Sequence to fold (743 residues):
Amino acid sequence: MSVAGINVLVDETRAIQAGGKPPLLSVRGVSTYYGSVAALKGVDLDVGEGEIVTLIGANGAGKSTLMMTVFGAPRARDGSITYEGRDITRLPTHAIARLGIAQSPEGRRVFPRMTVFENLQMGASLHGERHFAEDLEKVCALFPRVKERLHQRAGTMSGGEQQMLAIARALMSRPKLLLLDEPSLGLAPLVVKGIFDAIRRLNREDGMTIFLVEQNAYHALKLAHRGYVLVNGRITMSGTGRQLLDDPAVKAAYLEGGGHGAAPGGAHG
Amino acid sequence: MARTASDAMPAAALPGTAAPAGALGGILRDAALYALVAFGLCVPLVAYRTDPGPEGLVLVPRWGLVAILCGAIFVLRLLQRLLLLRRDARRALTASPAQATEAVAGEPDAGQKTSKVGLKVFVAVALTLPVLATLATGDLASSRYWIDLGILILTYVMLGWGLNIVVGLAGLLDLGYVAFYAVGAYSYALLATTFGLSFWICLPLAGLFAGLWGMLLGFPVLRLRGDYLAIVTLAFGEIIRLVLINWTDVTGGAAGVSSIPRATFFGIPFTADEDGFAAKLGIEFNTMHRVVFLYYLILVLALITNFVTMRLRRLPIGRAWEALREDEIACRSLGIDTTATKLTAFALGAAFGGFAGSFFAVRQGFISPESFTFLESAIILAIVVLGGMGSQFGVAIAAVAMVGGPELLRNLGFLSAVFGEGFDPSEYRLLLFGLAMVAMMVWRPRGLISVRMPSVSLGERRAISGAHVSEGHG
Ligand SMILES: Nc1ncnc2c1ncn2[C@@H]1O[C@H](COP(=O)(O)OP(=O)(O)OP(=O)(O)O)[C@@H](O)[C@H]1O
Ligand SMILES: [Mg+2]
Fold:
């Protein structure tokens, strides 16, 4: 696919949202470097209010890097990130979180020696005790497994339980925008279904905006309103979930056991 | 069931371990290797003693001693391996959760209960020590040794608890804690000698100054962690000491500050004249009044440190410290200002160090930079680490062991019968220190009291369990 082709797709995405308000989160020309190595090379991406947007890509494409760049760690070297029309590119991480963005990061990063309950308290740091009981009730309803284990040390929970806890902890801050990095990683198919159902419910019932990074492209694209494909630090494709699911290149690379080999768009280098 | 069987069986015969003969051979080889290394170390260190003779130094060979040392190491290693073999075999049979960082403690386990009760016992003993010591030794004057020792131990308990905020809770390795102790001591000494301010005004000021210095140190090291942080804090401790030595005009240099005003009973001095404490109370004058007063003063200061720490642990700031220790990035993305969190930990820890320092100054009446060497930092850190990073009771018993232990050694005079005249056991304090560290790292790598107590206590847990947990909890 040519460079011109990419541009067409990006324009198409903008057209989809053109009718509404400006996007909740907007990433423009963002490049992120680890030392002198570029992990992101001019990424453009929008997440509109009330949307589920997914980002798919092979291992090492830069998905997690993009998610963390939104949080300012690592920081974007070029480009800008705006949230609710406000430039957050240079804000410190905690200040970004205070604007109503929460994440369940890659590798879960729960606090292992603290109990599940304390982890959830940490998630609610921004609000303190104000609506803690109410929110606790809510995440417990969403993840009954978390509820059963409130007083277990987080580090001793199974990988799947820790994943649920990471999402639950993120929800405790009542985010407007929730970033999820591979929530289905290492989970049994039934649990994956549970997590994806939970994401859908959060979006439908609470109107939460969700940005989802996933390896599980099929589920993610089915769930999402829109999706982006990241290859070697560049967005090569975007469109509605349906469009991407039907795209032969996406199918070949991410859906039919195509693995991490040939990437659509082939925009290497 | 497999477990009970394994307990009864000799370790080497357990399934899953190597064949008995092979295992034993390996252990013998290993022990022999240890003995060989010991021999190698002994040759330059022990084998010859230099004695001054009539014509220069005379070499006295001590090969017998070398043989004894190597033999002892061989036997000890052999025993250790045999014991470990048994334990490992038992462990292999019980599955261990791979991701577990420590015992799965849904309910408080024995360790947690011990430390809860233990702290109460410790406080009870500490409160009654002067009475106990008086009863045991017959009269107040002869209990002085014990009360002085108590003061010394409590000073270290307080320092340990203070440093515990930084190292144990917030997970910031600080090797220069003695700097704040020094700042506190000099604050009181200088304010009292130059401006004539009383101890009770200087105490909060000393804490404040030390806290400010804590922040000052905090700023440059905000981005550092682990070993880098340790190096910078170490340097900071040394810098403070060198400033104290070289800034002669203000600090008196290496000579230090002397004739620091003594502690008063809230303004009433402990003197024999009619304005004195004894006369005011209408009791007989006794120099011990001041000592007992100092004892209770440091006890109260230490308990305040403990109380504040325990309180903060349950507040958001305390939880943030602990979360910071676990995962800094996760903390930040939950909206926690890690800069402020770290600085408060440094400042608060330093402030308590400063309080302890001004107590030290008022007790000694004389201070010099010599009291604030790296060794002090190392001992305080050792107390925190031995106590089990973050456990208040663990720190208390570690302080008793670390400070009281060498005193115990002092009384083991009979050892000089074994090791010859001129053997001073208390000189082996550092050896003891090292041995204790090694032993701890082998047997209790997480410290004496290693189980972290959840900040939500049992009573509250019940309430929460009732409210949010329908099943799964009894
Ligand atoms: N801290 C780091 N230092 C140096 N290079 C890094 C660092 N983190 C990531 N990278 C590199 O940046 C690139 C993108 O990594 P990233 O973690 O964003 O990939 P990803 O798309 O999330 O992959 P995966 O699906 O495997 O999680 C990779 O080549 C990786 O090696
Ligand atoms: Mg990733």
